[in-house]
Each structure stands twice: as C-alpha cells, then as structure tokens.
Design goal:
365 residues; alpha/beta; Aspartate Aminotransferase, domain 2; seven-stranded mixed beta sheet; 12 helices; 14% strand; binds pyridoxal-5'-phosphate
C-alpha cells in the first residue's frame, strides 16, 4: 500500500497525459505557454473566481499576494500555529511579522483567538485549510467586522484545500485572494513544482501577474520591479488533465474518510478529524490524534500500512519562531506530538481501506 501513488495516477490519465505533454513538446512554448493560460482559466472557473495567476509554487503564491498588498516591514500578519513552515516563511520573506495564533479542534486557526491577536499593525490574516478542512472564512469576516477591523485582509492558504468548500463556496474564493500549491502530493498535483493565486479582485490580479513575471504583462512593459515565478507549460498540461478528475478523486477521498469515521467512531483513544457541518472537506490528509503515535505507526508499519506526520513541530517550535512561548499554543503543540496521518487517496482500493480499518482496530492500546 502507498500513501501517494503517482504511477497509479499516471495509469488513470493515459493516453490524455502523453498527448497533452507531447503537444507542449511539439510547440516548445515551455513557460507561461498555451496550457498555462488554459489552466488559469479552468482553475478560476473551478474555484469560482474571476482570475487565476499561475506561478512557480505555493510559497511564491503566498509571497506574491502579500507583496501585491504592500505588506512588509513592521506589518503584522496572523498565522495559525499549526501549518507547514511556508505559511509563516512567506510572511517573513516580505519583511512582515507573523503573529502566531493557536488552532482549534479542527486544527485550523482559532477564529476567536485570532480576533484577540489583532493590533493596529495587523494587515492580514492567513486562513490555512489544513488537511483539506475548509476554514469558516465567512465567520472570520463577520468577527473582523464586529471588531471594527474590516480593513484586515483575509488570505487563504489553500495549498491543502483543493476541492473543499464552505457555505456553498469553493475554497479559493473565500477571501480576497487564495494561494494554491500543486506540489506533486497535493490533491491536485503537478509533476514538479507549481502554484497559483486565485482572486476576484482585478487590481490584485493584475499586480500579481506583473510581480510574478518581472513586472510586466506583455514582453517589455516592465512597470514595476517584479520577479520570476511562472508556471511551466508542461506542468500546466499535466494539471489540466488532472483537474478534470479532481472532483471524482476528492469524492473518493470523502468515501474513504466516511468509512474510517464510521469504523472508528467508538474508539475512545482515537481523536478523529473534525468535519464541517456546512462544508465539504477535501481530505488531503486523514489526521488522527493518538496518545502514542509512534506505537500506532509501528503497528501499522508491521501490517504494511504507511503513515505520516503533519507536522512533528508546530510553528512556535521552529527555531525561527522560538520567541513565542509554547504555553500559548497548547492545541498546536499537542497536535505536533500526537498527530498521525493515515492513508487516504483516490488510489486506495476498498480492500486496502478495509485493511487500514482492521489494522487500526487490532491495535492494543
Ligand atoms: C499549508 C501549505 N502552505 C504552503 C505550502 C507551500 O507550497 P509549495 O511547496 O508549493 O511551495 C504547502 C506545501 O506543502 C502547504 O502545505
């Protein structure tokens, strides 16, 4: 059994995949080419936004959003204490200050705590849809409004959220702008690095497009000092083929998650992942919390079942955030110590799902 099976995906995608890649090789427009444009338009449609700007990866996309907002020296950006390092790295890279806030039961930003962390210097909040759980961005917006802080921008880090929705709206369309990663292991993954920003704000969209391509829209209209963060056309060709499968693949993840939840709901020692009542989880990870995760991981390993940890350290436990007292982040620190990611993915057969269910069931606590 594999936790991610790119060869399985390849087999499902042929012959379209080879044809699509061959077309790019034949034309030779390797960067920001035809399929990049087509993917941008398809992904904007998928997320229900007016525009999608393809870029190099899901860290650049966060940085590009922050840069486009003019967020930099001395500005504060609220970031959940449990996420991949890239979320706060992007804030640091633009010269701003990540203000860490603990996560809630669903292991996403604690929205009430986020409001308490606002200061006059707060410019933005990054809502990370961790594990594919869609953050209630609308509630965050209402809380910010109630606090008199409608000026604070909501950015989605949707690197793990492809295919999730909340209150009937797709992740990617919930804040002012959203950042996506298409790292190969994501729900929608390229065959290399790739990322994108989605937004319905036309000013943001143009600014990000310029920033990501040396400050220009055309060939030589370098209006601002930008950078190079573009999507390879080959990656876009892969993503276009995969995007057509995304809903079916996420639906399979939901099926597997429902089987796991039904099978394990009575296990007092196992904290199952939260499910939003008014939203659809994308199940990028099926993350459980267990008192002794190493023991469960070893037991599953012996049964031929791979597991992972996302993540062994919360942000305040990383050296570059060491000034934050750990006592302020009890949930994030506890998740870091007890989280175990169990196999989930479109490639898993019913038989493999049953094997996971039985193996967890036979664990002696
Ligand atoms: C929550 C989160 N944010 C940002 C990123 C960064 O994406 P990339 O690896 O494409 O730069 C990732 C990727 O793992 C992620 O999981």
């Amino acid at each position: 059994m594999k936790s991610l099976d790119l060869q399985w995906q390849r087999a499902q995608l042929e012959p379209e995949l080879s044809t699509a890649m061959e077309a790019v090789l034949g034309r030779g427009d390797f960067i920001n080419g035809l399929e990049t444009r087509q993917f941008e338009s398809a992904f904007a449609g998928y997320t229900g936004t007016k525009s999608c700007i393809a870029c190099g990866n899901g860290t650049d996309s966060l940085e590009l959003i922050l840069e486009a907002l003019g967020i930099g020296n001395g500005d504060e950006v609220i970031v959940p204490a449990m996420t991949f390092a890239a979320t706060s790295e992007a804030v640091l890279r633009v010269g701003a200050i990540p203000v860490l806030v603990d996560v809630d039961r669903a292991v996403v930003l604690d929205l009430q705590a986020a409001v308490l962390a606002l200061t006059p210097r707060t410019r933005a909040v990054i809502a990370v849809h961790l594990y594919g759980y869609p953050v209630d961005v609308e509630l965050l917006r209402q809380l910010l409004e109630a606090a008199g802080r409608s000026d604070v921008v909501i950015i989605e880090d949707a690197a793990q959220g492809h295919g999730a929705s909340r209150r009937g709206r797709m992740v990617g369309s919930l804040g002012l702008a959203a950042s996506f990663s298409f790292y190969p292991g994501k729900n929608l993954g390229a065959f290399g690095d790739a990322g994108a920003v989605t937004t319905s704000d036309e000013v943001m969209s143009e600014k990000i497009r310029r920033l990501a391509n040396h400050g220009r829209l055309g060939k030589f209209d370098h209006e601002i000092a930008g950078r190079n963060s573009r999507m390879d056309t080959l990656q876009a060709a892969v993503l276009l083929v995969k995007l057509a499968r995304l809903d079916a693949w996420v639906a399979r993840r939901r099926e597997i998650a429902a089987s796991y939840r039904a099978a394990w709901s009575g296990y007092g020692w196992l904290e199952l992942p939260e499910v939003p009542l008014d939203g659809l989880h994308a199940w990028h990870q099926f993350a459980v919390l267990v008192p002794d995760r190493d023991a469960l991981a070893a037991h599953l390993h012996d049964a031929g079942i791979p597991t992972g940890v996302h993540y062994p350290q919360s942000l305040p436990q990383l050296p570059f955030h060491s000034s934050w007292p750990l006592a302020d982040f009890p949930r994030a620190v506890s998740v870091a110590a007890h989280e175990l990611s169990l196999p989930i993915g479109e490639h898993l057969s019913d038989d493999e799902v049953s094997r996971v269910i039985d193996a967890v069931g036979s664990f002696q606590v």
